[in-house]
Amino acid sequence: MTPAARLQAAIEILDEVIVSARDDGPPADSIVTHYFKLRRYAGSKDRRAVRELAFSAIRRSAERPASGRAAVLGLAEEEPALLGLFGEARGPEPLEEGEKASPAGFVPEWLIAELSPLVGRAEWPALLKRAPLDLRVNVARTSREEILSHFPDAVPTPLSPWGIRLTPDRRVDDHSAFDAGLIEVQDEGSQLVVLACAPRNAEHILDLCAGAGGKALALSAVAPEAIILATDSNRARLSRLAPRAERAGAALETRLLSPPREVEELADWRESADLVLVDAPCSGSGTWRRNPEGRWRLTPERLDRLIALQRHLLDIGAELVRPGGRLVYAVCSLLSREGAGQIGSFLDGRSSWISEAAPIAGGRPDGAGRLLTPAHDRTDGFFVARLGRPC
User: Fold this and answer.
1) Which of 49, 166, 302, 374 could covalently link to 126 via disulfide, CB atoms 3.0 to 4.6 Å apart?
2) Distances (CA, A) of 157 to 173, 229, 374
3) Taking the model in full, what pTM does it have?
4) CA distances from 224 to 140, 187, 273 (A)
């Protein structure tokens, strides 16, 4: 592909990403993969170059652009050489007078007031920098020291005792340690959420929003003799846990829930869980490093729905925790209403519950929890709070 053809391909991909973000369709990564499956003639260098162009344009635009062409024109403001490719053979159509470029930005204007006060403007550039690849060592089967010997270019993560860090875009799914269930891809921030849970053997632990089970697997690795139930209302996500658990040698139960009957379907766990983890669906604002088009998907209406769902899940979790047990709430979000505000409301309505210190080294105090941020902690953004139910 010529440079002009690569630029045109990036515009076509961006057009698809914009529509997908508007209609809650597939993520940008999937769109790029599908685009090149239909264009086998593109070599590996072409695919890398087009992907880099597309994601550079996505990271640059806080607001959803009017079109892929507008997004690339914005990128050309910082890389003027791109303007010379317009009008070339197989490239974008020639420039027209008065064409508007997508403006640059880090945070959508309407979301600025929603950010935690800890996430000031000086931290915004880090929200879009490329994230490293973090791995969690399956400490039920091996040690971090042993895994580091398999990855000479890796370094230990500074905050999690189970993590190692590799450069971005490193593949590990074809590594023997992955096949043997000795490692899982998991950001250090997610590992710290599990560390905040402090799971213990023989405990009854419920992961209420388990998804594909990353945190449930980590809980099992730390406390392999605990009884762990992983639940979710999304069949497709939850179905991915069983093969992962088999590979890791983790003994987990799963249960598919049917909202709004969750409490009824978990009646056998009511007031009996030592630990309930509520890793709630959220804005994903803490993962923009990995999913920068997530900024284009979020709307005020969707945020309101997510906050209502988080409140509902916290209510369910509170009914499952036994007296003397604990509830850990986490969201991969940097927004106050999803984090400190959500837990503040929970505690205001339950005077008997207490806020407990999360046993993690990272983050900063934010209300009754701690906030991890890419700039401060070099992790994805996470709010985590640990709450205790007195006996």
Assistant:
1) 374
2) 20, 28, 14
3) 0.95
4) 7, 21, 16
> Which entry of 197, 282, 332, 391 is annotated as an active-site residue?
332
Helix (H, G, I), strand (E, B) or coil at 92: coil
* Whether residue 373 sits in one domain with residue 225: yes
* 194-236: pLDDT as tens digits: 999 999 999 999 999 999 999 999 999 999 999 999 999 999 9
DSSP string, 63-83: SPPS-HHHHHHHHHTT-GGGG
In 210-282, at which residue ranges do the beta strands (DSSP E only) sit?
Answer: 227-232, 253-256, 273-279
- With tokens 């986490």, the residue in question is 330
Residue 166 has a pLDDT of: 96
**pLDDT tens per residue, range 80-129:** 999 999 999 999 999 999 999 999 999 999 999 999 999 999 999 999 99
Q: Is residue 332 annotated as part of the catalytic site, yes or no?
A: yes
The domain containing residue 149 runs over which residues? 133-185
Runs of H (alpha helix) within 223-299:
235-239, 241-248, 262-265, 294-297
Q: In the chain, which stretches have pLDDT less than 50?
A: none
Residues 224, 331 share a domain: yes
The residue type found at 199 is: P
Number of domains the chain is built from:
3
The CATH number assigned to the domain holding 354 equals 3.40.50.150
